[in-house]
Predict the 3D structure of the following.
Amino acid sequence: MKLILRNLTEDYVIIKIEEILQNFNCCKCEQCRLDIASYALNRLQPRYVATSQGALMTKLCEFSGQFEVSTTAIIVQAIETISKNPHHPAVE
């Protein structure tokens, strides 16, 4: 079984962005999603692990409730910031 190096924070943020964006009326294009992820990840502590692909989801489930609350708050802040300042022309 091959081990891979993963930043669990990145994986978790990508999953949470998809969930949280459903509650916002904002641009959801790939550029905005990547900008939201970049904004959030630059403000969160990375959590690198060496894991097999199958163990990845199990490790993601180990995050604490406080980590989830903090991450959600930063993602919401990222969505609000990027929505006000997208890196592309306004979509009408």
